[in-house]
């Protein structure tokens, strides 16, 4: 059983876009020993937009996650950079391959928690010129195109698909010290689970899934990987958790194969958020060095 790692999500729609607050949050997460920091993604909203039964305030400030992770990388030294989830069908893989590899190079190999998904707002797809019904196929192609571009040499690579087509194309820089960046697949459908098994390096299901259906989908991830000749034991399995979760709950998730838990602060005030992070770090002995998890603004 692989050890469970902890990452934390920074929810800009709730916490705001103040750069000093973001940097302080990320630096404290790093001091506490969190593995990485995740950011959500929406390119555009509109009045009446809903995800499931939840209506989204159209004024919510969803920052561009990749630009923001670059900013975080410049203010930290160990924290891995993650998306939960990046809306892959709405971005061209040729441009995205360059952006992701650049962040990975400049951060010395920390763009390693990339999780991609499809999006659930038809109007958002339409706004960027994407047929909502095609987004699953586009995502599958985009993953393959990204990997082709990262692995290609000076002679160039070619890719001929339904949505993306190029020949003798080179993309530099490459990811830092590795031929490929890991790509995790997020989502709450069986199609997402199959996509993870076929194309992903990990799976990050939605927190809205019922436990029985989540278990079925995790089995589908592994079965699909085996059928495709891939090793499911090498997959990361990421789950949402609560920042106050007890050790018994973590042990239960680990027994299900979970390798990473992503939590979010429940408090709105930065000082209390720091306390919540420190308390989790102490509960699970995450701190990089003794005594550092409690450090923060206004603390010795």
Whole-number radius of gyration? 19 Å
| Structural class based on helices, strands and sheet pairing | alpha/beta
The DSSP helix count reads 10
Total discrete domains: 1
Name of the CATH homologous superfamily:
Luciferase-like domain
Please state roughly what percent of the residues sit in beta strands, choosing from under 5%, 5-15%, 15-25%, 25-35%, 35-45% or over 45%. Answer: 15-25%
Q: What's the architecture, going by CATH?
A: Alpha-Beta Barrel
Largest sheet: 9 strands, parallel
Shape: globular
On the 0-100 scale, what is the average pLDDT? 94
How many strand segments?
Answer: 13
Q: Regarding quaternary structure, how should these chains be classified?
A: single chain
N→C terminal distance:
38 Å
Helix content: 25-40%
Order of helices and strands: EHHEEEHEEHEHHEEEHEHEHEH
Q: Which regions have little confidence, pLDDT < 50, spanning 5+ residues?
A: 289-300
CATH class descriptor: Alpha Beta
CATH fold-level assignment:
TIM Barrel
Order of strands in the sheet with most strands: 5-2-1-13-12-11-10-7-6
Q: Would you write up a description of this structure?
A:
The chain has 300 residues and is an alpha/beta fold. It has one domain: TIM Barrel (Alpha-Beta Barrel), CATH 3.20.20.30. Helix content is 38%, strand content 16%. It is built from ten helices and 13 strands. The chain has helices spanning 12-15, 19-32, 65-74, 93-106, 122-127, 135-151, 190-199, 211-227, 247-255, 270-283; strands spanning 5-9, 36-39, 50-51, 54-55, 80-83, 86-87, 115-117, 157-160, 165-169, 184-187, 202-205, 236-240, 260-264. Strands 5-2-1-13-12-11-10-7-6 form a nine-stranded parallel sheet, with helices on one face. A two-stranded antiparallel ribbon has the order 3-4. Helix 8 links the parallel strand 11 and strand 12. Helix 6 runs parallel beside helix 7. Residues 289-300 have low confidence and may be disordered.
